[in-house]
């Protein structure tokens, strides 16, 4: 089985070796491994809501009777080191709205003995 974080890290490492271009993604892990920024639903909240649905189904509820829910919490994550490497000034108003600011030491490095080092 592939470790999702290691896979995204390897992919980001390959992409970051190419000429840099600003990009925003929906998945929070993208900024964690070297992307510029992400804006999307909270993964934690989505997993908690999924657990609630599973609990209801185990207690006898019919899946077709459960309501469809939209995310209610959105997260903005900005990787400041990548912004600096791209020469992009991030407006103060955006920094104040960010849920998380990340400064990474660099893209993951492949180690033959241990896999990826973060």
Can you characterise this structure?
The protein has 118 residues and is α/β, with parallel strands linked by helices. The chain has one domain (4-43, 70-117). Helix content is 41%, strand content 19%. It has five helices and six strands, in the order αβαβαβααβββ. Strands 1-2-3-4 form a four-stranded mixed beta sheet. Helix 2 (28-32) links the parallel strand 1 and strand 2 (37-41). Residues 110-118 have low confidence and may be disordered.
In a nutshell, what does this entry contain?
The chain is an alpha/beta fold and 118 residues long. It has helices at 4-17, 28-32, 43-58, 80-86, 92-97; strands spanning 24-25, 37-41, 74-79, 100-102, 109-111, 115-117.
Instruction: Please identify the structural class as seen in this structure.
Output: alpha/beta
How far apart are the termini?
20 Å
- Helix count, per DSSP? 5
Would you count the extended β strands for me? 6
Strands of the biggest beta sheet: in what spatial order?
Answer: 1-2-3-4
Annotation keywords:
two-stranded antiparallel ribbon; alpha/beta; 5 helices; 118 residues
